[in-house]
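Per reviewer request, we include the raw input and output of the structure prediction for the construct analysed in the revised manuscript.
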Amino acid sequence: MAHFDLPLDELRTWRSRSVEPEDFDVFWADTLAEARGHELGARYEPVETGLRTVEVYDVTFAGFGGHPVKGWLVVPAGARDPLPLVVEFVGYGGGRGLPHTHLLWASAGFAHFVMDTRGQGSGWAGGATADPVGSAPAYPGFLTRGIEDPHAYYYRRVFTDAVRAVEAARAHPLTDAARTAVTGVSQGGGITLAVGALVPDVVAIAPDVPFLCDFPRATTITDRVPYREVGHYLKTHRGSVERVAGTLAYFDGVHFAARGRAPALFSVALEDLTCPPSTVFAAFNAYAGPSKAIEVYDFNDHEGGGPFQEQVQLRWLAVLLTD
């Protein structure tokens, strides 16, 4: 697919038309207070993986509603002192997968926590976390589950799980809470933006080709799922356009970006039909942290920079978390 979105010079000034709810901050403060009414109950069970360079823990903690959420904690073998921590959120449809697929950050000397995504994990990497909450009728996928009520919306649970995942990761004695970064690709990047706003003391965030940004633009510019799930839903629920837009505004990465407090490293791919460039730049341009940078991959689709972006992230986080 050739370039289809705005020219790069216009992308650098693009601003979302998403309208921020007046009670955005109250909504999220109340949501997290409700979640913290449940004991975190983080449990770490050592796992024998056959890997010699890392040690792995199977983690369970209480997320939204006190529901059990899984994760992996991967640390360098033999680590005895608290390590800088990277918390990672995974892409749409995937789960935490198998431990041996998560070696990058521990190999660089970091503690690495990978959160499973509730109800997902059957698309491309296995998951182990159920979503026990039902919803009103939805289009197949996750993006429209509970979409007519922000309190019932699927991503309210996921974003809350993610905040609790940071708390669970920080509770382990081999992690240094004062040196915590969050990252993720696609859906994981959108979750990263939310956590960067909802956990004010993270040191850095690295959203990679982030999903869940600039919904008014995203749901009308691309035919590719997941965003297209919203259009398919509204084909049937014709009278729900305003209610759906109102719900999505509580979960738009643009509004979380406006509350960012940490240095941020974004990435964008100019041929990305899944997370169109203008939606990523909408979040980047709104980002309010003390510093920000964006890597632009001119001829890539949703794979983005892949290992090239990981290389950039490694150098960037080495400065922020270890110097």
